[in-house]
UniProtKB/TrEMBL annotation:
The keyword Membrane applies. It comes from Arthrobacter glacialis. InterPro entries: MFS (IPR011701), MFS_dom (IPR020846), MFS_trans_sf (IPR036259), Sugar_transporter_CS (IPR005829). Pfam families: MFS_1 (PF07690). It comes from the Bacteria. This is MFS transporter. Residues 16-431 form the Major facilitator superfamily (MFS) profile domain. One of its GO terms (cellular component) is plasma membrane. The chain crosses the membrane at residues 31-48, 54-76, 88-107, 119-144, 165-184, 190-209, 243-262, 282-302, 314-333, 339-357, 378-399, 405-426. Gene3D superfamilies: MFS general substrate transporter like domains. It is found in: Cell membrane. It is a multi-pass membrane protein. Keywords: Cell membrane, Membrane, Transmembrane, Transmembrane helix, Transport.
Length: 460
């Protein structure tokens, strides 16, 4: 490769990394703003007539309902992403998320619109779920398929960093509103709307950045050879349904534990004036901002680790750490000391980062090129449903049913062990050729149970 071409390639890779990072940050800022508001004010504003306890359960259920529609987004984006390209799906999902989020900030509450208010809220949350289900697959494939084989872990960590960055931004903006701009009743009256309306500006930035990136070289190759499958979803499930299930289960532990924080449960639990912790909203939101920063650092670290020691080993270390920290997590929070909350969140985010940073590269390397968008998107969406969709709701129900946070820790340990078991059953395929011309090797050997050998070289 000539020096000028090498420079152009590196420039393209940096541009793609930046575009996927910015785009996923905007997407997940929108997503987490909802979860944060659900834990703090939606029970009162949209589900108030149900009472404080049931209203909080309904608010957390509204967080989870969007996960049920992630597979629809994954199916749609996967189908068209494998047929017309990764880039188009990135732009469309970003616009859908931004519009839905901005409209939430304009909704009337139950006090002014009655039952219509929570219905409209749920519809917009569902649209957020469809967008989130389709966005992730396109972002990670753009990052990983543009990267050299020995740096896919690091490249794939860039879209992953958008999740903690989105949480960091969402927590920081909400803390600014509750602590400075609209403290006390003002936040309940109008301040909660501002973070949703800010999405308009962020979406504009993300849109122009993503429009400027080049299409994935793997998809360009597929399109040039006219090898797009007619119905990618059918081909995926006909040949690789076991792989989809295992890949989804890999995500279960990370998502269930992660949504204790990102799904709004820990902020709600720590600030509940009738609970045993009773911390203030703004200090807890600042602690969540710290958690997002730590999660960001550990996710970036895990991307580099995945290139050095492999995706599988990085995951095993992460899930082992997570299994050891789910009980200390709530024991520390229950002390009611702010320093203990920070320590609990630090422990939580270490395991989260190590089981999130390598995910993009590993998912991309276990699915064949022709159905890769569908495979990574659907596996991610199903894992999110099984793991994080209703973990805040389950946690709140367990707390109300048992009166102790130990039940929540037991639930999180179970999901962590499920994720670890799935990790053990998958093979590490670091560095495998992702090109459509290597489809014969990509089709087999992704799990420890698959002893098949690659067929003669073929593109299908």
């Amino acid at each position: 490769m000539s020096s000028s071409r090498a420079v152009d390639t590196r420039r393209t890779q940096r541009r793609v990394a930046f575009a996927t990072l910015i785009g996923t940050t905007v997407e997940w800022y929108d997503y987490f703003i909802y979860a944060t508001a659900a834990g703090l004010v939606f029970a009162q504003l949209f589900f108030g007539p149900a009472g404080a306890q049931i209203g909080l359960l309904l608010a957390f259920a509204s967080v989870g309902i969007s996960f049920l529609f992630r597979p629809l987004g994954a199916f749609l984006a996967g189908h068209y992403g494998d047929k017309i390209g990764r880039k188009a799906m990135l732009v469309l999902t970003l616009l859908l998320m931004g519009l839905s989020t901005m409209l939430i900030g304009l909704l009337p509450t139950y006090a002014t619109a009655g039952v219509l208010a929570p219905i409209m809220l749920l519809i917009l949350r569902i649209l957020q779920g469809i967008s989130a289900g389709g966005e992730w697959g396109g972002a990670v494939l753009m990052a990983v398929e543009h990267a050299p084989a020995n740096k896919r872990g690091r490249a794939g960590s860039f879209p992953q960093l958008g999740v903690p960055l989105g949480l960091l931004l969402a927590s920081g903006v909400t803390a600014l509103m509750t602590g400075v701009i609209a403290p006390g009743d003002a936040f309940l009256e109008w301040g909660w709307r501002i973070p949703f309306l800010l999405s308009f500006v962020l979406i504009g930035v993300g849109y122009f950045v993503r429009r400027a990136v080049e299409e994935s070289p793997v998809f360009l190759e597929i399109a040039e050879m006219k090898l797009q499958p007619k119905v990618p979803i059918l081909e995926l499930f006909r040949k690789h349904w076991r792989l989809v299930i295992l890949a989804a289960l890999v995500f279960v532990g990370n998502n269930a534990v992660g949504y204790m924080a990102t799904g709004g449960f820990i902020p709600s639990y720590a600030t509940n004036p009738d609970g045993i912790v009773g911390l203030g909203k703004t200090p807890v939101l600042l602690a969540m901002t710290f958690a997002a920063a730590m999660w960001l650092i550990f996710t970036a670290l895990a991307g580099g680790m995945a290139d050095k020691i492999g995706r599988k080993r990085t995951y095993i270390i992460g899930y082992t750490v997570m299994a050891l920290t789910v009980f200390p997590l709530f024991l520390l929070i229950n002390t009611g000391e702010l320093w203990a909350l920070y320590l609990a969140l630090l422990l939580l985010t270490f395991g989260l980062g190590l089981t999130y940073g390598p995910q993009a590269a590993w998912y991309s390397e276990i699915f064949p090129a022709s159905v890769r968008f569908s495979g990574v998107s659907i596996s991610y969406a199903l894992g999110a449903i099984l793991g994080g969709a209703f973990s805040p709701l389950i946690a709140q129900w367990l707390l109300q049913a048992t009166g102790t946070s130990l039940a929540i820790s037991g639930y999180l340990l179970l999901t962590t062990l499920i994720g670890l078991a799935a990790v053990i059953m998958l093979k590490d395929r670091s560095g495998i050729d992702l090109s459509i011309t290597n489809q014969h090797e990509q089709e087999v050997g992704a799990t420890i149970f698959d002893k098949r050998k690659p067929a003669a070289a073929s593109t299908r």
